[in-house]
Design brief:
By secondary structure, the chain is an all-alpha fold. It has 13 helices and no strands.
């Protein structure tokens, strides 16, 4: 689980740059064929029991499918559409809330639920699942933000980004096979804690990023992150499922995987929103500084009709800038507003010089 998100961008970047972005949709063909072949050769032959379809939790399946689909769309499109300011996102949010609430109620009351949510009441599994969800939050968040930074700030192409992220995936190939042996000698809880601390430390290593921070500077943090990821998932899963009965193992695994992926989707959405809000803030500060410089230049000129009017425009822009700092409701348009402002400012400055 930790290896796939790290090595996926590497393979996808290579295919995109050399064979076109369409080829990334075929990256799972060979693994799928291998999986189907293994299942065909190893599973015991049993006759189909179509009568079991009558016992299916179809209400749970229906509400879960609608609820998770709506929630996933809200998380992916919310930042672009300024979240609940968009009627579309608001309606989807209501659908997700109602559907998932019905799903939880159905699963807790039906005799044969699709997902046994009551397993979360067990202490180890409940706390382990929470930790796994937070791990997905951080894991998918880091996989999202580093490629975004390299592509937008450093202008890396897809293959170059994949080469940087490869150092998060390749060391895990060597470490993951050794983790079960380590678990036989060291308390599993301690291994999981050490893995989480190493992963957290690797994230803090990137807090000093600047425009001079590129692929070479990410090399060591990525290797440290690979060590942390390799040490955390298997022990954490072992701790969470240690007290689960064998007949509930499949249900517990499904809950854990679903919540980990959901945590990753939420983490990615929150990070994207945070980046957008900070972009708006810095754009507003840039506008404020630009207006302040223009006001000072006005005060240094003769008090003519045109310059006085322009000085009034410069000093009167404070209220609008404060509204912008509090949050302009148009999300990713911050860059376009910034560009338009600079263009208008340059035009006004040129006209002021001609008038003088």
């Amino acid at each position: 689980m930790t290896f796939a998100p790290a090595i996926g961008p590497t393979i996808g970047g290579y295919l995109t740059e050399n064979y076109g972005w369409q080829t990334i949709f075929f990256v799972n063909v060979l693994p799928t064929m291998a999986m189907v072949s293994a299942l065909y050769l190893t599973l015991e032959r049993q006759p189909m029991q179509l009568s079991l379809l009558k016992e299916g939790d179809w209400a749970g399946i229906f509400t879960m499918a609608i609820g998770l689909s709506a929630l996933q769309t809200v998380l992916e499109e919310g930042n672009k559409d300024d979240w609940f300011s968009s009627p579309f996102i608001l309606r989807l949010g209501i659908v997700a809330l109602i559907s998932l609430s019905l799903f939880v109620w159905i699963e807790l009351t039906i005799a044969k639920p699709l997902i046994r949510l009551r397993l979360l009441m067990q202490r180890n599994f409940g706390f382990g699942t929470i930790a796994t969800t937070l791990l997905g939050f951080a894991l998918f968040g880091s996989v999202y933000i580093i490629p975004a930074y390299l592509g937008q700030a450093q202008h890396y192409n897809a293959e170059q980004i994949g080469a940087v992220l490869a150092w998060t995936g390749l060391p895990q190939l060597l470490l993951i096979p050794l983790v079960p042996r380590l678990m036989q000698r060291v308390d599993t809880r301690y291994i999981a804690i050490v893995g989480l601390l190493i992963f957290a430390y690797s994230c803090f290593m990137n807090t000093q990023m600047s425009l001079d921070y590129a692929g070479d500077q990410l090399w060591i943090p990525n290797i440290v992150r690979a060590v942390g990821q390799a040490l955390v998932l298997t022990p954490l899963t072992s701790v969470a499922t240690g007290g689960i009965a064998p007949q509930d193992a499949a249900a517990a695994s499904g809950i854990s995987n679903m919540l980990r992926n959901l945590g990753g989707a939420i983490g990615t959405a929150l990070l994207a929103t945070l980046i957008t809000k900070r972009e708006q803030f810095h754009c507003a500060v840039d506008r404020l500084l630009h207006k302040s410089r223009h006001a000072r230049s006005c005060r240094g000129t003769s008090a003519g009709h045109h310059s006085a009017r322009q000085c009034g425009e410069a000093t009167g822009a404070g209220a609008g800038i404060q509204r912008h700092v509090r949050g302009d409701r148009r999300g990713p348009g911050a860059r376009r507003r910034c560009g338009r402002f600079h263009a208008q400012g340059q035009g006004k400055r040129g006209r002021s010089a001609l008038n003088r």
